[in-house]
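Can't paste images in this forum, so I'm doing it all in text. The chain is below; anyone willing to post the predicted structure tokens underneath?
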Amino acid sequence: MTAETQKKIINKSSSRPSESKIRFFFATYLIPLLVFSIGAIPFFLWLLLMFFLYLITLNTILYFIITPIIFTLSIFILIVSEILISGTIIKLFNIKYEEGTYEYSVNNNEVFKWMLILQLYTPIRKILEIIPMRYIKVVYLRLLGMKIGENTLVGGVIRDPCLTEVGNNVTMGDYVIVYCHMHNKAEGTIAIKKIKIGNNCIVGAGAIIMPGVVMEDNAILAAGGVVKKNSVLQKNKIYGGNPAQEIKLFKKKQ
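Text version of the structure:
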């Protein structure tokens, strides 16, 4: 481990294994279970209301007609309530982690919060990948701390919303992946660094952006491009490839 890395690692843990297991249980099982249980309350209230309506309605033909509608609407209510309520809880309790390099241990407070967000966010992220709900996705990401400008299309996967900033009039294509964290198993660390995408940028489909990247205003990243960590894509320029490099366009001589 380099001296620079050692200086950046904070709160190195010396806790006992039993304490680690307890914190791991809280981060990965107990707290997510409680949050998602609260998120399911509107769904069960809706089912209770539908049950009473069925009791006072005797028309069997009506049952046949409205049952599929009620079932579909119930699933939609469950999904939306889980998204919005879990995001609201994260926002209210200010559950977010800060950039830095940390010992990869649940006893580290920043890593604990990272693991907790991972457990709460991943199921919702998977749902939003399957069911495109653009406006609900934007609201949810903002609840998680992501800064999103006006008239911006957030496609793909944002792995660390609380450390990602996207400006105005930005287009992000499908299958884009934005990482703000990077593991180093050899050194037992996790490095977390913010990503900033400026105004009027375009991120092509399938592009990958690594920790610490800055895209200046009007920069374009071509489809499938991979931007290595801590890179700066300069304004008004086009980049592509793996690793991403500037693509210079040549005008034909007339």
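Residues 9-132 form one domain. The mean pLDDT is 90.
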